[in-house]
Amino acid sequence: SGSSVFKDRYDMEADKLEKRVRDSVLEMVKKRQTEISFGEDFLGLHLKAHYASDGNSRITVQEIIDQCKTFYSAGQTTASILLSWTILLLAIHTDWQEKAREEVFELFGQQPPNPEGISRLKTVSKLLLLQEQGILIK
After folding, report:
1. CA 43 to mean position of chain CA atoms
2. Is the pLDDT of residue 75 over 80?
């Protein structure tokens, strides 16, 4: 977009997405502000910094939003790369693929996997850990 006066449809869509992300984070911030404790997670620690009694270490709500966007984006990219490599390694090592498939069917049957059950998949967890550490599956 060469002009700051006229925006093309991509700029307008980017602005809409930016507003939606900002509104989502602001909603989470407002919800946490009503709770007794901000929590010890990523957002909670940033809210503590926002309300810090030492003015020099305070951060703004905009800084919280920017940090949340960065953290989310980095996590999504990391997870995407990890899963891509895992799929490639499973395609190469069909014996591990079969072990993982059997474990998924044993735990879930014909039901779609759910987050609680996924954490109980030992073979799949081992595959992800080995891949994350850069150890080739043999």
Report:
1. 13
2. yes
> Who has greater pLDDT, 45 or 127?
45
Tokens of 87: 């799929």
CB 82 within 8 A of CB 132: yes
Q: Quick one: pLDDT at residue 102?
A: 93
Rama region for 84: left / alpha / beta (φ>0; ψ in -120 to 50; rest): alpha
**pTM check: above 0.90:** no
Other CB atoms closer than 10 Å to residue 101's CB: what's the count?
A: 14
CA R_g for the chain? 21
Give the SS3 label for residue 86. Answer: helix
pLDDT digits (tens, 9 = 90+) for 94-105: 998 999 899 999
CA–CA separation, 15 and 9 (whole Å): 10
One DSSP character per residue, 68-83 reads HHHHHHHHHHHHHHHH
